[in-house]
Amino acid sequence: MRWTLWVPLALFTFFLGLAAYQLSQPKDDVIVSGMIGKPLPQFSLEPISPDRPGVSTADFKDGTPKLLNIWASWCLPCIAEAPHLESLKEQDVQIIGIAIRDKPEDVARFLNRHGNPYTRIGSDDLSAIQFELGSSGVPETYVIDSDGMIRYQHIGDVRAEHVPMLIQQLEAAR
Amino acid sequence: MIAELGLAALWLCAALAVLQLIGGALAQRGDNASDLAAMVRPAAMLQGLLAGLAFACLLWVFAATDLSVKLVATNSHSLKPMLFKLSGAWGNHEGSMLLWVTVMALAGGLIAMVEKRLPEKTMQATLAAQGFVAIGFYAFLLISSNPFERLVVAAVEGQGLNPLLQDAGLAFHPPTLYFGYVGLSVAFSFAVGALLTRNVTPDFARVMRPWVLGAWVFLTLGITAGSYWAYYELGWGGWWFWDPVENASLMPWLAATALLHSVSVLAARDALRTWTIMLGVVAFSMSMLGTFLVRSGLLTSVHAFAVDPERGTFILFLLGIYIGGALLLFGLRAGHVREGERFQLTSREGALVFNNVMLSAILGIVLLGTLYPLLTEAFDVRVSVGPPYFNPVGAIFTVPMLLVMAVGPLLRWRRDSIERIKLPIAIVTSIIVSVAVLAAIMGDMAVLPLLGLCVAIGLAVASFLPLRGRNLLRVPIATWGMVLAHFGIAVALFGMASDSAFTKERLAALQLGEEVTVGDWRVTLDSVDPVAGPNWTAMEAQVSAWRGSGAPILLQPQSRNFWAPPMQTSESALATQWDGQLYAVIGNRTEDGRWQLRVWWKPFVTFIWYGGLLIALGGTLAAIGRVLADLKRRSVRARANSRRTERREKGFA
After folding, report:
1. Between A48 and which of A83, A123, B145, B614 could a Cys-Cys bridge form, CB atoms 3.0 to 4.6 Å apart?
2. Do B328 and A9 touch (CB under 8 A)?
3. B564 touches chain A (CB under 8 A)
């Protein structure tokens, strides 16, 4: 009977060991976006920059895969990713931008200072399209294939190490 | 300045907790071996005071939105309504830990101030244990989660509170749970104190009981509120998802339920000594385990917050020391606790032991289901354990437990016979059978909801049987408490069974003006318009619902977009009727301009939470009844003592 008094401690020690082991393991929590494999939602956004047209769903269906970049002039990480978008543009990648909750004059200032990698820029001033795209913040970058299907969603700023990966994704989406 | 004051108070608290531990430990060596032993009680009281001050300071910086404090800058926003500014103080990791230790210190101060029934040595051991637990939490706060940390440069604006958490119900959900957890920590300290001094007596049980009952009431309220919040705020139409965080709050409740029944046996009959001690340790372990699981990020959950492996390591370390230490002490000492009174199987004690075993089994099942993914992940297999496991496996133990619960309170203490209560048994059985037959005739139902309905109705009647043949005015308050709590279980079970058996769901894409039917309701989507709130914009639908020929009920579900931080939530709209709720959620707009509308008719679903409230009310009555009875007993004892001394002085003794 005496030994049963030690059962709780034994069970607890087992749990402690298991939890300690799990805590020491690197946590790999990649959750694939639920939007992947789905077509772009229907939308048509007004232009926000005088020298770039607005964006609609049809613009993605011309036969070449594109990047869809969700950004805003008020977003600091967007400044950080600007040079890398620029380098993607230099590798002949078409980037379409959607500016979130932005003003034309702020957009103009941002593009002047940090470069303009976009072929088109649409204005989403209520985040309506952003939410339909399943995006929860800025910046985010989507790979859209030639049929207007979402193939990949990148959350956060695009860094130098992401550029080859995005190019690869675009190749695969061809 | 206010923040620094709070931090200073916290450091002093930590020092006092150390004093409490050392003083209490020295007191165990011999009779009043040191002056420090005399300081245990005052230290506990002062600690309570200072912890209260520290928490008040935190509330102050949140109320004033002092953006030079890091915690305020990351969790608050100058535009937020005052209620949510204040609730933001504990709606985050650091603040909630501070709230936890504050309540714990206040509880420690309270027992130090008023509790005089136990031998002083046991009290000192208890307060030492309380101090020992507190030290860990203070260290945690001061070393790795300082709530008063300043920013070098004050922020211009705060980063807001998670919009899902901007909800009055949720503002009070975590504190309610913490009150429960802390009550269990007091029970834990009493258990450790009793083990250390080998003093497990009915008096010990009476001292511990109000804390267990109080903790249990708060846990019940916390779980009920949390479940209702998940129901209307998450917009999934469900009220329990067997999510790790929910399980983390359910497990301490199960342990506390078992504990409060076994503590009653110990108080009334001086039986179940070691078992009660064990449950005291287990109940607190479960609340700490819950904290660990929620905050370490080991298990993926929809509402985990403050996920941080480093904090997880710290909590695991504390868990190892406290629970491991207590279980070690249990292994060493429990064998020396004298065996309590014996009893027959057919007796009140027997029924309560059965209840305890079943509750422990359910606890084991929930614990296993919650930790199972952790185990398989060690072998690189990712699993998610959900309702298909929990519901049927839990029911195996819940149904027998509820059946025994229906008649258990009718049994006498120590020894009884089934023969004596065969009439009530027959009544309850016939009710259950007739409900089952009726349900079987009315239509095909799944097994579990059917079982739930039968047992719920049988139990509802049975819960009032203990009042049969008694003068209702002279029934003790605590008995009323038991009756109400048991009835509450029946009511909640009825709601759960009815919800899963009879819910009608309809998902439709509607043009404006189009109509759908759900159950006996006709629902029309009238219009969808944009609306704006203080920190969100939303699409709000106007939905009319008719039942029969009466006036329409207007429902206004919203799809809300918050912008600090950006996040989309769906605000469901509810129409509560006496016999259920109509629940509407507006979704996205489809490509052809129609709107997705999801409507549920949930018969008697509200009974789940009414039941929860009844259980909590029952617990409150029981606690009040017990405390009043104890006070009375104490005054009778005191009078008898004084009479005896008087007599002795007069030379009669």
Report:
1. A123
2. yes
3. no
Give which of B349, B208, B355 is closest to B271, Cα–Cα.
B349
* Distance separating alpha carbons of residues B136 and B216, to the nearest angstrom: 24
Beta carbons within 10 angstroms of residue B259's beta carbon: 32
pLDDT at position A79 over 90? no
Alpha-carbon dihedral sign for residues B212, B215, B221, B225: negative
Place of tokens 């300081």: B39
B298 part of contact set with chain A, CB < 8 Å: yes
The set of residues, in sequence order, having a beta carbon less than 8 Å from that of B231 and lying 6+ positions away, is B237, B238, B239
Cα separation of the two ends of chain A: 71
Nearest to B144 by CA among B133, B136, B152, B154: B136
CA-only gyration radius of chain B, Å: 27
Mutation choice for B interface testing from A2, A5, A56, A138 by most B CBs within 10 A: A5
Interface confidence, given as ipTM, is 0.79
Of A5, A13, A131, the CB nearest to B330: A5
Chain B contact set for A12 (CB, 8 A): 285, 323-324, 327
- Chain A residues touching residue B313 (CB < 8 angstroms): 23
* Contact (Cβ atoms closer than 8 angstroms) between residue B309 and residue B296: yes
All residues of chain A having their beta carbon less than 8 Å from the beta carbon of residue B324 are: 9, 12-13, 16
SS3 string, B36-72, reads HHHCHHHHHHHHHHHHHHHHHHHHHHHHCCCCCEHHH
Residue B419: count other Cβ atoms within 10 Å of its Cβ: 7
With bands split at pLDDT 50, 70 and 90, how would you rate the model's confidence at B354?
Answer: very high
H or E element at residue B215 = helix B202-233
Distance in Å, alpha carbon of A94 to nearest chain B alpha carbon: 26
- Position A135: which residue type? S
Confirm whether pTM is higher than 0.95. Answer: no
The lowest-confidence range among B303-307, B401-405, B509-513, B641-645 is B303-307
The helix (run of H) or strand (run of E) holding residue B515 is strand B515-518
Contacts with B195 from chain A: Cβ below 8 Å:
none
The minimum CA-CA distance between B643 and chain A, rounded to whole Å, is 45
Selecting from A12, A16, A23 the residue whose C-beta is nearest the C-beta of B298 gives: A23
Shortest Cα distance, chain B CAs vs residue A147, angstroms: 17
| Coil vs helix vs strand at A72 | coil
Give the residues across from B562 on adjacent strands.
B536, B567
Predicted pLDDT of residue B250: 92
Q: Which of A12-26, B56-70, B360-374 has the lowest mean pLDDT?
A: A12-26
Is pLDDT at B307 greater than 60 in this prediction? no
Is residue B479 within 8 angstroms of chain A, CB to CB? no
* Confidence check: pLDDT of B164 > 80: no
d(CA B157, CA A51): 34
Backbone angles phi, psi at B484, to 5 degrees: -65, -45
Predicted local distance difference test score (pLDDT) of residue B114 = 86
Task: Give the pLDDT of residue B230.
Answer: 82
Q: Chain B contacts of A13, Cβ < 8 Å?
A: 324
CA distance B458 to B404: 12
Q: Please classify residue B467 by burial: count the beta carbons closer than 10 Å to its beta carbon, then call 0-12 exposed, 13-18 middle and 19+ buried.
A: middle
Write down the residue that tokens 């709070």 correspond to.
B6
Displacement of CA B399 from its chain's centroid (Å): 22
B204-255 per-position pLDDT tens digit: 898 899 999 999 999 999 999 888 888 887 767 788 888 888 888 899 999 9
pLDDT at B187: 93
Q: Which residues contact B221 (CB under 8 A, 6 or more apart)?
A: B176, B612, B613, B616
Q: Are A22 and B334 within 8 A, CB to CB? A: no
